[in-house]
Design a protein that fits this description.
Elements lengths: L12 H11 L4 H13 L7 H11 L13 H7 L10 H10 L2 H14 L2 H11 L29 H7 L6 H13 L5 H31 L16 H16 L2 H12 L4 H13 L6 H8 L2 H13 L13 H14 L10 E9 L8 E8 L12 E8 L12 E8 L5 H12 L9
Antiparallel strand pairs: 1-2, 2-3, 3-4
Helix pairs in contact: 1-2, 1-3, 3-4, 4-6, 5-6, 6-7, 8-9, 8-10, 9-11, 10-11, 10-12, 11-12, 11-13, 12-13, 13-14, 13-15, 15-16
Length: 438
């Protein structure tokens, strides 16, 4: 049996064929034997014939084995990731056209792992405007990142700009383009090509957020058929926008400013906050009145405070928006609006009390609020509920030695005294051992 010098014996084509035959059998015991055979191969590299056999085997459909979470085809194709150049690019492309989606995703990664010009050319075609668009799988983290180590990877720019408009691809395409920009691998013409190509994508996402925001403001709040009450329909679009805005922040200011000003002009204050911090980061001026308008929205204020803090520009925001109470309100609303919590911001929220976190003013304070949502939200029957955030100093900074939090256990206001509510919230977090001293 052939082997690499000083290494394990090479995996051979007959072994692949034997495992494939077992995995295709109708009885489950044979299929389990096939999976065990694949597991025993470990790190054995395939010889050229075995590599081609693995590629062919991964294009087939296999019956599932109970209690096994990984598709046999995926197990087989992942073996090639250890030696990505063991198969020709043309073979990978041919397999891509007839494979299942999850296998196609691994094949794209396999081409990226080649880290050579051939792989870059193939990827540019498969994800580009002339490729088989209906076969493009959704990306996963780091899918095409290895290809960026190739000297000619900047040739992928037109294809990356194109694929950014595909559903689910904006974040990964923006991530790859941003890396190319930050590493100085794109020239001025390419910078402008990126901005020109992605400007319509950004505009369409901003418009979708604007429509949703204006629709929410004018509607009676009744959800459409099949839509969860209070659900934030802009969440996915804002996630894509965040990735694209991060890319535009990396581009020269004169190139990015026109697109970022469109983001700033959004009717959705949370989107506008993204544009504001990006423009300030690029050295572009913003009227204080515009920042005030954005900061009135608690969720957008949280976004704005994070962004301005990151670029050391908090002083651009009026003091009333960055006070401890104002920051606590923003963080609590953002936390409540998360899909894992209420999934919507409160319809009403009021500050009820400020509780010192220690004996010294520098220890900051925890701010407690009551809030409620209207029907048909599931929490509406509870009426006013209690939430808390902090500890923050008066200037909005986090008290030293403390971990800031924002949380609620959704207990009704009349179920306990405020001290009891806070104890329950802190106990649920497990981060404040001396809660009784508050």
């Amino acid at each position: 049996m052939a082997s690499e010098p000083g290494g394990a014996p090479n995996l051979t084509a007959p072994e692949i064929e034997e495992a494939r035959a077992l995995l295709r059998r109708s009885d489950e015991e044979s299929r389990r034997s096939g999976l065990m055979m694949v597991d025993r191969w470990g790190d054995r590299p395939p010889d050229p014939a075995a590599a081609s056999a693995l590629l062919r085997a991964a294009t087939l459909a296999y019956p599932w084995v109970r209690s096994q979470r990984v598709d046999p085809a995926l197990r087989l194709i992942r073996l090639l990731c250890r030696s990505p150049r063991s198969v020709e690019v043309r073979e990978v492309e041919a397999a891509y056209l007839v494979s299942a989606e999850r296998v196609r995703r691994v094949l794209l990664h396999l081409l990226a792992l080649r880290r050579d010009a051939e792989g870059v050319v193939s990827l540019s075609f498969l994800i580009g405007p002339d490729g088989p668009a209906d076969l493009l799988p959704l990306p996963t983290g780091g899918l095409l990142t290895p290809a960026l180590s190739v000297p000619g990877s900047a040739d992928m720019v037109p294809s990356l700009v194109h694929v950014a408009s595909r559903p689910g691809w904006a974040w990964h395409a923006a991530e790859l383009l941003q890396q190319l920009v930050e590493e100085g691998r794109l020239d001025e013409g390419q910078h402008r090509a990126v901005a020109r190509g992605l400007a319509p994508v950004v505009a369409s996402l901003v418009e979708a957020c604007d429509r949703a925001t204006l629709g929410t403001a004018t509607s009676a709040g009744a959800p459409s058929d099949g839509e969860r009450p209070g659900r934030d329909v802009t969440r996915a679009d804002r996630f894509r926008l965040r990735s694209l805005v991060s890319l535009f922040r990396a581009l020269p200011g004169d190139v990015s400013a026109p697109v970022l000003r469109r983001v700033l002009a959004s009717a959705d204050a949370r989107v506008s906050a993204l544009g504001a911090t990006a423009l300030l980061s690029a050295g572009q001026p913003i009227a204080p009145e515009r920042l005030d308008l954005v900061a009135r929205d608690p969720e957008a204020r949280a976004e704005l405070l994070d962004g301005l803090d990151e670029i050391d520009r908090l002083a651009d925001l009026a003091p009333r928006w960055r006070s401890g109470r104002s920051r606590a309100e923003a963080e609590l609303v953002r936390w409540l609006a998360a899909d894992t919590e209420l999934g919507a911001r409160p319809d009403e929220l009021e500050h009820v009390v400020t509780m010192a976190a220690g004996e010294h003013p520098d220890d900051g304070a925890v701010h407690m609020f009551r809030f409620r949502l209207r029907a048909p939200h599931w929490s509406s029957a509870r009426g006013w509920m209690i939430g808390a955030a902090g500890p923050y100093r008066e200037d909005g900074s986090v008290a030293e030695g403390f971990d800031a939090f924002a949380s609620s256990v959704y207990s009704a206001e009349d179920e306990d005294e405020l001290d009891g509510h806070l104890d329950t919230i802190l106990d649920s977090l497990g981060v404040w051992p001396d809660a009784d001293e508050l």
